[in-house]
Amino acid sequence: MTMTNVHTNIAADAHPVEMLLNMGPQHPSTHGVFRLVLWIDGEKIVRAEPHIGYLHRGSEKLCEGEQYHQVITLFDRLDYVANFNNEWAYCRAVEKLMGLTVPERAEYARVILGELNRVASHLLYVGTMGLDAGAMTPTMFCFRGRERIQALFEAVSGARMMHNYFRIGGLKEDLPENFVQMVKDLMPLLRQDVEESDKILTFNEIFLARLKDVGAISPQEAISYGFTGPCLRGCGVDYDVRKAHPYSVYDRFTFEVPLGLDGDCWDRHWVRVQEMYQSLNIVEQALQQMPQGPVTSSLGRRLLRPPKGEVYVRGENPRGELGVYLISDGTDKPYRVKVRPPSFCNLSAIQHLLQNAWIADSVIILGSLDIVLGEVDR
Amino acid sequence: MGITDLLIILLSLAALFAGLTVAVLGLIWLERKVLGRLQQRLGPTRAGPMGLFQPLADALKLILKEDIVPSSAEKAVFWIAPVIVVLSAFVVWVTIPASHTLVVENLDLGLFYIIAVSVIGIMGLVMAGWGSANKYGTLGSLRAAAQLISYEIPVIMVVVAVAMLAQSMDLRVIVERQGSYPFVLLQPLGLVIFFIAGLAEVGRTPFDIYHAESEVVGGPFVEYSGAHWSVFFLAEYINTFAIAALTTLLFLGGWAGPLLPPIVWFLLKTLAVVLVVFWVRGTFPRLRIDQLMAFAWKALVPLSFYAVISTAIYQFYGWPAWSLSLMSLAGLLAVGYLVYQRMTGPARRVAQVRARQQAAMQSRRSGISGGPVAPPAAQTPSAPGQS
Fold first, then answer.
1. Do B288 and A358 count as a contact with CB atoms less than 8 A apart?
2. b/e A77-98 (16+ beta carbons within 10 angstroms → b)
C-alpha cells in the first residue's frame, strides 16, 4: 500500500490530524453519567458532541401515574443536590392551580430551607470546580459546610437529601422546636465555610489563569441558548426570578443580585460565590421575620383533585429557572407534568463553548455550567 | 575488581534500596497526614499508632491485587515501562550524599550524572502511555514528554550556576564550599527556579498535568494496576525526595549545621523542603498545558539564563559576595512585581463588576431599566402563597 492510500483510508474516517476521544459516561469530571465525544487536534478540541440520556428515568411520565402528593418525591430526584427548591416549584404549581394560600410560617420555612439548599448546592459546585481545576483542599472545606446544612435538613425532615418535606399548601409537619436556634448557630459556621473556600480559590492566581476568559459567552448568545441562573447572570444580564417575578415572600427581603461582566467561567464562579453570601443574608432576615402559626393549609392533607386547567410556575433554583408546566384533568393524578430544567438549557451551549477550547478547558467549562444529570436527563 | 568489591557494591545498593523504600513509606504517611491537617481532616489513624502502618497496608494491598494487562496493550513495552521509570529514579540516588561519608559512590561529575540519568525516566512515561494503547495514556505521555523536556532546561542552567559558584560538579565539594554561607544567600533566584522546575520535573501539584486526574484520568498510568502501578508510585516519591535532597545540597548547605550530626541536618532540611512540596499540593490548582509551557519558556528559561550570567559576572570580576545576592534578588523582585501586577489585575476587574452592579441598582431604584430584563416596579408585599 502506498502512502497516498494510507492517507485516503484514514481520511475516510476523520481528518488525518484529528483523534476521536471519548470522554465519559464514566469519567471523573463529567459530573455524573454525561458523555462527550471530542475530536481533538493535539491538545485542541476541533469539535465536540454531547450525548445525554444515561440517567433518563422517565420522571415526567412517572408523574402522570402518581397522585399529586406522591409526585413530590419524584421532583426530589430531579436536581438531587437542590431537593427543597424542586419540591417548592412543584408545590407552588399545584397551589397556583388550586388557588391555595400557604400559611406565613410555612412560606418563611420554605425560604429558609430553599436558600440554605442553594448554599449547599453552590458549595458542592465550588468544591467540584476546585477538583476540576486540580485543587483538592477547597473540596474538603465545601463538603464540610454542605454536611452541616444537610445535618440541619436531616433534623428538619428526617432525610439528608430526598427530603419529601414540602406539601401542597404547606409543610409535612412543623419545624423542630429549636429550629431557629439551630439555624442561628449554623450561620457563623456557614459564613466561615463559604469564606474559606472563597479565599483559597476565587482569587488564586492559577485558578484565575484557568478560568478567566475561558468559555466566554455573550449575553445575546446566552439568552438565545436559554441560559438562566448564575450562568446568565455571569454574562451581566440582570435576571433573577426572585426579583423579576417575585414569588413566596421574597419581596420582603433585601438582597442583591450579583452580576458578572465577561460571561466566562470565572464570572460564573464568582456570581455563585457571591450568591452564597446573599442567600445567607436572606436566611438571616427570614429568621427574624418568621412568625408562629400553622404550617399546613386546611386542604393540604386530603386527596387532592385540582380543578381542570393548566398552569406554569417558575422558581429560582441554584442552577437557574426551574419551570413546572402542569395540566390537570380534574382527577387525582396530573394529566401532564413538563419540567423546564435549567441544567438542560445551560448544557445546550456546550458544543458552542467547546469549539477550539483546550482539552483541559472542557472540564472547566462543563464544571462552570454546573449541571446535574438527574435534571438534564429526567 | 575482586569479588569483595562486587559484594560491597551489591550490599550498598541493597541498603540504598531499603533506605529509599523506608523513606518513601514515610513520605507517603507524611503527605497523607499533612494534607489531612491542611484539609481539616485527620488523615490515616487506624493502621498502627497514628496510622503509621497505613503505607505498608497500602503497599501490601497493591502487591496482592490482580495485575491487569489490557488485551490490546503492547505487552513488552507495557511491562518494561515502570521498570525504566523506577530505575532512573533509583539510580540518581547512587551519587547523592547524605553526609560526607554516607554515599554509595561519589562521582566527580555527580551533578552531570544526575541530570543525565533522570531524563531517562521520561522515556519510561512515554512508553507507558503508548504501550497501554489508551488515548488518555497517549495524551498524558505526550504531555509528560513536552513538560519534562521543557523544564530540564531551567534545571540544567541553575545547576550550571551552582557548579560555577562551587567550581565543581562533585556534590561533596559543593556542600563543602557552602561552609561559610549556603548558596541560597548568594543565589536566591536559583533556589526559586530550581524548586519550581523541580516540582514540574516530578509532576507535582501545580504541574501535575500529565497525570491530571480530572482531565486525562491518570495519564500514562491509566491502565496500570496492582504492583505495576505501585512501582510508578514508588518512583514518584523517590523523585520528590531526590528533588528535595538536591535543593538541600545545592542551596541550603547540605549536611552543614551546628550541634546535631550531619545526617540529621540533611534529613531535617530535606524534610522541610518536602513539607513545602506537600503544602503547595494542598493549596494550588493545576495549570493548563499551554500555560505550563509558556511559563517554562517565557519565565523560567530567561530567568535561569539571567542566573547563569549574573553568576558568571560575579565570578569573572571577583566582586564581593553580596553583589551576586543583590543581582539575584533584583531578578527575583522584578518577577515578583510582574506576578503582583497580574494578580491585582483581576481585583481591578472585580471592582469594575461591582461598579457596574451598583450603577444597575441605582438605575433600577430610579425607575430606569438597566439590564435587558426589567423587573417589575417595587410593590407592596404580596400576600403569601400568591405566585
1. yes
2. bbbbbbbbbbbbbbbbbbbbbb
Please tell me whether the interface predicted TM-score (ipTM) of this complex is above 0.90.
Answer: no
Average pLDDT, chain A: 86
Q: Are A282 and A245 in contact (CB under 8 A)?
A: no
Question: Are A248 and B346 within 8 A, CB to CB?
Answer: no
Contact B352 A313 (CB under 8 A): no
A48-66: average pLDDT? 89
Kindly state the greatest CA–CA separation across chain B.
Answer: 100
Cα distances (angstroms) measured from residue B118 to each of A22, A64, B156, B163, B201: 34, 66, 12, 18, 9
Kindly tell me the burial class for residue A101, based on how many C-beta atoms sit within 10 Å of its own C-beta (0-12, 13-18, 19 or more).
middle
Give the CATH number, domain containing residue A200. 1.10.645.10
Structural domain includes residue A32: no
Nearest CA among A282, A300, A246 for reference residue A68 = A300
Together in a domain, B231 and B83: yes
Burial classification of residue A54, based on how many CB atoms lie within 10 Å of its CB (0-12 exposed, 13-18 middle, 19 or more buried): middle
Interface of A with B in 312-341 (CB under 8 A): 313
Interchain contact, A19 vs B135, CB within 8 Å: yes
Please check whether residues B34 and B106 belong to one and the same domain. Answer: no
Q: Residue A251's domain spans which residues?
A: 59-342
- Give the gap in angstroms from C-alpha A88 to the nearest C-alpha of chain B: 11
A208 in contact with B, Cβ within 8 Å: yes
Asked if A261 and B349 come within 8 Å (Cβ–Cβ), the reply is yes
Of A102, A207, A243, the CB nearest to B375: A243
Cell numbers at residue B99, please?
A: 553526609
State how far the Cα of A189 lies from the Cα of B20, in Å rounded to an integer.
44
Residue A8's pLDDT is: 45
The model's confidence at residue B369, banded by pLDDT at 50, 70 and 90, is very low
- Beta strands A35-41 and A44-51 are antiparallel
Q: Which amino acid is present at A338?
A: K
> Look-up: residue for cell 575488581?
B1
Q: How far does the CA of residue B57 sit from the closest CA of chain A (Å)?
A: 24
Using a CB-CB cut-off of 8 Å, the residues of chain B touching A101 are 383-386
Torsion sign across C-alpha atoms A125, A130, A132, A137:
negative
Where residue B336 falls among pLDDT bands split at 50, 70, 90?
Answer: confident
Q: Which residues of chain B neighbour A134 with C-beta distances below 8 Å?
A: 205-206, 208, 212-214, 284-286
In a domain, A4, yes or no: no
Does residue B19 have a pLDDT over 60? yes
> Chain B contacts of A289, Cβ < 8 Å?
none
Nearest CB to A131 within list B209, B214, B375 = B214
Contact B290 A29 (CB under 8 A): no
- DSSP-based three-state secondary structure for B218: coil
Cell of B310: 549574573
Q: Which residues of B touch A96 (CB under 8 A)?
A: 387
Whether residue B88 is found in the same domain as residue B59: no
Q: Give domain status of residue A362, yes or no.
A: no
Closest residue in B to A313 (Cα–Cα): B387
Q: Which of A247, A252, A267 is facing B387, going by the closest CB pair?
A: A247
**How far, in Å, CA of B96 to CA of A20, rounded?**
45
